[in-house]
Write a structure and sequence with these properties.
Shape: globular
Bound molecules: 7,8-dihydrobiopterin, fe (iii) ion
Order of helices and strands: HHHHEHEHHHEEHHEHEHH
Structural class: alpha/beta
Helix content: 40-55%
Distance between the termini: 42 Å
């Protein structure tokens, strides 16, 4: 894929202003306070291993060298959303596309497109975990295939409900591994503690049929038991699965199907020892 090079840019780390670094610090400090006891251990280990900290926006070259040594991934600086095919081609080659710009002060709580805080603080620490790193590469390969088969919608839902908004059950309670949550102050608390969203057991076909919102907190989160389970779910050839679910109706973002047990706060607080 020759055009991969055409869509990557230089981060130009020395070009960030003092105010841009200060916005990073603000966002980072706030998330650190919220994520203790909420983020999964794999994420916290990744953050520490990379030395991603409150100091300021990190230099991608330094992060890439640490990441490369741990799992063979590197960061590719990109100007914004890149076309699907390039996005998947990068992931399939263990290159994580990261935007360089940081949100403005009036966007601290919400912006619809990814910025450097979401990409670096939300996604990159998870790539320090070997199993998750392999899952992301498999997702990139699956994405290229889904494009050819015309089933990107279904595969994008898998990304959304795992990489961006996934929860994991641990002996201590539910924890966050989805980057869209990890980089959001409001949703970090909402996803675990609010009584409105459904927290359902991860099921590949169910996830691929479920629509999602891009402009509000999720109404449903899917819970995995461990990352090996997630990776195993992406091992089979998706072609027959796409055919199978094409015959079934889509599922609304807030629906609970007959027989599905939604985990509810009445059964105990998410952040203690509850299992899904
Ligand atoms: N580009 N930079 C960037 N970041 C993304 O998360 C991204 C993208 N292009 C396409 C894309 N995501 C989605 O189409 C896939 O996740 C399905
Ligand atoms: Fe993202």
């Amino acid at each position: 894929m020759d055009d991969v090079r055409d869509c990557t840019i230089e981060q130009n780390w020395s070009g960030y202003s003092a105010d841009e670094h200060a916005i990073w610090r603000l966002l980072f400090d706030r998330q650190q306070r919220l994520l203790v006891g909420r983020a999964c251990q794999e994420y916290l280990d990744g953050l520490r291993g990379l030395g991603v900290a409150a100091g300021g926006i990190p230099d991608f070259r330094r992060l890439s060298d640490l990441l490369d040594r741990a799992t063979g991934w590197r960061i590719a600086a990109v100007p914004g959303i890149v076309p699907d095919e390039l996005f998947f081609a990068l992931l399939a080659r263990r290159r994580f596309p990261s935007t360089c710009f940081i949100r403005r002060r009036d966007q601290l709580d919400y912006l619809q497109e990814p910025d450097v805080f979401h990409d670096i603080c939300g996604h990159v620490p998870m790539l320090m975990n070997r199993v998750f790193a392999d899952y992301m590469q498999a997702y990139g390969e699956g994405g290229l295939k889904a494009l050819r088969l015309g089933h990107l919608t279904e595969l994008a839902r898998l990304y959304w409900y795992t990489v961006e908004f996934g929860l994991i059950a641990t002996p201590e309670g539910l924890r966050i591994y989805g980057s869209g949550i990890l980089s959001s102050a409001g949703e970090s608390v909402y996803c675990l503690e609010d009584s409105h969203p459904h927290r359902l057991r991860f099921d590949l076909r169910r996830v691929m049929r479920t629509r999602y919102h891009i402009d509000r907190y999720q109404q449903t989160y899917f819970v995995i038991d461990d990352f090996a389970e997630l990776f195993a779910a992406t091992r089979p050839d998706f072609a027959p699965i796409y055919r199978e679910i094409a015959a079934l109706p889509e599922i609304a973002p807030d629906a609970v199907l007959p027989g599905e047990r939604a985990w509810s706060k009445k059964e105990g607080p998410c952040v203690s020892t509850a299992r899904v």
